[in-house]
Every structure is written in C-alpha cells, then in structure tokens.
C-alpha cells in the first residue's frame, strides 16, 4: 500500500474510531428490517404477556440421540466428522453392560450400583428426577437445534431451489433461515445454556468414570496372566463430544457462508451494473442493494464468531470456564490492527472479530483504490459511483474472510453428509419411513393414485447431494393399511405404538 493510501487509512480510522453519524441510524434500520439476529428472548423465556404467540417445547440441552450415537462409537470408534479414534474401545458385551446394573456383572466392591450407567445417563440428559436443566424454548428454535445437532441441513438444497431463495425477491425468506441457524448458537452460548450443557456433560462423565473403573476391574480379573488393555471410557466421552460439537459447528457454519456467498455475489454484480439517475444521492435501488449487503454482512459476522461450542470447564479439557471473563483493556478502541485468535468467551470473540473486520475493511478498501490508481476517487467524485460502491462491498467481503480465518482457522468441511453416512453405516438395519393409512373416506383407487404421486415427488430426495444413490435406493416408504392392523381411522397414537 502506498504512502498516500496509508495516510488516508490512518485519517479514516481517526475519524471513525467510534463510528460515523450514520452508524446509529444504519443499526436501527437493520434491526427494523429483521433480516439478521437481534434478540432471542422471545424464543427462550417461555410464554410472555403481550408477546407474539409461540409454540413451546421442553428442551433437553444435550440432544437425547447423542447417547445411542456415543454407545455405537464405543464399539466402532467412528467419530463425528469422518474420523476414527486411536483409543482402545469397548467390546459389544461391555457396551451392553452400560444398560445393566453393576450388581449383574461388575466385580466386588464395584457391584453395588442398583441402577445401570445407561439409566443414570438418561436421567442426566433430562428427566423429572434431574429437571433443573429443563426449560421451555420455542418450537422453531428446538426444531432447528435438533436438525443441526444431527448434521441435517437447515433446509435441503432441493427445497431451497424450489423456493427460489437465491433470487433477490426472496431475500427476506432466505435470511430467515440464516437467522434461525445463528439463533441456535446464540442460545447455546448464553451463560445459562452453556453452563447447563457443561453440567450435563460433566455429570455423565462422573457416571462413566464409575463404569470405567468397573470395566477395567473386570478385565483385570478375567485376564489369565494379569495383562489387560486399559480402556478410558471418560476419555472416549470427551473425544466424542468434542468431535460432535466440531461437526455441528462446521456443518452449520459452512452451510450459512456458502449460501450467503451465493446471494452476495449476485447482489454485488447487480450493484456494479446499476446506474443511478442522480449523481448526488443514492437511488432507491442502491439503497435496497446496500441494505441487503449490510444484512448479509451482519449475518456473516454473527455466524463467524457465534457458531462455536467451546468445551471450557468440561472434564477432560484443560481450559477453565471462560464465560465469566470480562473484556480487558486490550479489547478497547474501535479497531484491531493485529491478528486475532480463538477464544472460548463469546464476548471476546465478538469484540475481536468486529474490530478486526473494521480495520481490515478500511485497509482492503484503500489497497483496492491503490491498485486502481485512485481512479474511483478522482473520477466522477460521485458518492453513488458504482465502481466505488463495488470496491467498498468487495473490501468488506475480503475483510470478513481474513478475520474468519484468523478466528476459526482454514475451512475444514468434510465431503460427506453426516446423517447420510450414519444411515449408510446402518445399512443392515431397516431404512426409511412407515406410512399408515388412517383414513378410508376415499376409494382404494384414489389411495393408490396418492401413493404413486407421493413416491414420484420424493424419488429424487437429496437432489444436489453427491454420492447418495445407495442410500436413496435403500430408503423406502413402507405403506401400512391401518385396518389390516386393527388400528382405527385417525388413531395416530395407536399407529405410533
């Protein structure tokens, strides 16, 4: 960067250290548009007088399906994220002992537990016996959390394309999905939720520690020469949860950035091609496009520093609890000129990232202007000049990319889809869905016609996902007539059994 660009950068930073006169207005306008996350209190504090009506559901902070996945991992060693552990594993019989009271299999004096380890884990995940970490959250938040936890995209690519969410006239609808994903991680990183998830993990760690001692004692007792392989069930628990969290965050973050980049690219192209009628003030179209870029930039920022699940304070992790740490003097000022790094504290990450982007944004802008020999500044002089606006947009995109790599490291997104790989590993089991006919007000011919249309509609599920033909062929709809099973029409509860 030339000397004049460096001086202009320093002048800009001095004048905008605390923002510009337009900053409060732009922030309020963004909040009013509701295209980026602002506040999740209406999703987490239960029914509130005068607030929008919501459907509520009790949330088990750690999703219950985590435990059967962990039990499978104890035998096969396959971690979330397409990795494999190098630690010693349990035998099938030892995993079965997780569901049996210690009195049935453990040697003395470790055989006194009346409840099985699996039962204790179920209690800790969420039950009325240990209900302090159960609370209501909005159904929409819970549904998205469950999808992301299992590695399922927020919306399939097929459905995204059917809804036309890459198109400019569906911008608000696309942003709703970005907001829904980010809201999940805002929720998971709030002090109450993060502490509850940590406590659930640590309580399970304690139960597994007792089980681990019994397993190793049994191995030792059964070893003819006294030699046996020691297994660390607690170590496997930490490794599994850390990999699970990494997989959740990597998949969710990759999905958001990939879709934002697609939308943002088309908006920048449209901005470059638009010529305003008046040189001295922005056209309505320019305001529309720059507002969209502002919303996408905010979603990108919040995704970059929020979509993380640190394990500070977890047994097995050396990092102490960090959410109580206050911002330091180093977090002061409006800019970060030095590279940033990861922190387990959300407030630290947000402060570091936003201030780093503010600096890199300006630095990149003056570097771009330098390469253009300052022509956008010396040309028409119009604030509405498309060339200058495009440089501003690209500078912000580049700044966020650089700050993201400093904070999160280089992208490490696997080529496989977690839930599809899980289905593939279970290929010896039954795959698909059972569909019950619980309405006989129509003729058999109409029912058969419905089945044909339904199966034709779903035959290409997973469109846009590579390498899933084997799973697609294995996943079938199993049709059952309720009358043949003595299930009355409309008796959904009977069908569930």
Descriptors for this entry?
single chain, two-stranded antiparallel sheet, 55% helix, 2 domains, mainly alpha, 497 residues, globular, two-stranded antiparallel ribbon
Task: State Rg.
Answer: 27 Å
End-to-end distance, in Å? 70 Å
> Considering DSSP H and I runs of 4 or more, what fraction of the residues is helical?
40-55%
Count, helices: 19
User: What amount of the residues lies in strands?
Assistant: 5-15%
What is the molecular shape?
Answer: globular
Main β-sheet description: 2 strands, antiparallel
What is the number of independent domains?
Answer: 2
Summed up:
This protein has 497 residues and is mainly α. The protein has helices at residues 3-15, 23-33, 41-44, 66-76, 92-96, 117-125, 139-149, 157-162, 171-189, 191-222, 233-273, 284-306, 346-371, 375-378, 386-408, 418-425, 444-458, 469-474, 492-496, and strands at 56-60, 78-79, 83-84, 134-138, 432-437, 476-481. The protein is globular, with a radius of gyration of 27 Å.
